[in-house]
Amino acid sequence: MSNFVVMQVREYRLHKMEVMDHGKAGFTVTIIPPANRGGVPREVTRDSTTVTLADTLNRAKAEIDAVMGPKPVMKHRGFGR
Predict the structure, then answer these.
(1) Cβ within 8 Å of residue 30, ≥6 positions away
(2) Model pTM score
(3) What SS3 class is residue 80?
(4) 77 neighbors 45 (Cβ within 8 angstroms)
């Protein structure tokens, strides 16, 4: 039987996150920084606190937020008169 791998690319704050799901064999999440930042792709390490894929994606987002700094405050643009 052949191996089945699902690959998904998500974008978050100019970074790309590659999610490779190997089924029962596990999954990997790789953070790819934008080209103008000059960083190298790196894999998000898993430990006892990041068990599920959702936990690992949240950890990847937290690592990106740590590099990029706080998110800018969005101003509400309504129809003010």
Answers:
(1) 17, 18, 20, 41, 42, 43, 44
(2) 0.78
(3) coil
(4) no
Q: Mind listing the pLDDT tens digit for each residue in 33-63?
A: 998 887 899 999 888 877 889 999 999 999 9
Mean pLDDT score of the chain: 86
Angle at 58 between CA 3 and CA 61, to 5 degrees: 105
The residues with which 32 forms a beta bridge, in sequence order, are 16
Tokens, residue 37: 């930042």
What string of H, E and C letters represents the secondary structure of 49-66?
Answer: CCCCHHHHHHHHHHHHHH
In single-letter form, the type of residue at position 16 comes to K
